[in-house]
Design brief:
Helix 1 packs antiparallel against helix 2. The protein starts with a helix and ends with a helix. The protein has one domain. By secondary structure, it is an all-alpha fold.
């Protein structure tokens, strides 16, 4: 019974992690493309584009590190 519960937990954790990666990349690309913008008093499109690029790069780095952790 414990092995089955552990497998289900692993699948749920993977699904949650994958959802977070997809949402992060979606928001990052939307900010860089101008779909999501910030008001001018928060820096406008320049800050939004920069923040979007930071989100994309950090998300890809975290995916790479997670893969490396699982392999090693």
């Amino acid at each position: 019974m414990m092995a089955k519960g552990k497998g289900l937990t692993t699948i749920i954790n993977l699904a949650l992690w994958l959802t977070g990666v997809i949402v992060s990349l979606s928001v990052g690309f939307a900010m860089t493309n101008g779909t999501l913008n910030l008001p001018n008093w928060l820096g406008g499109s320049i800050v939004a584009t920069t923040a979007g690029l930071v989100v994309i790069v950090l998300t890809l780095i975290s995916v790479l590190l997670a893969i490396i952790k699982q392999v090693s």
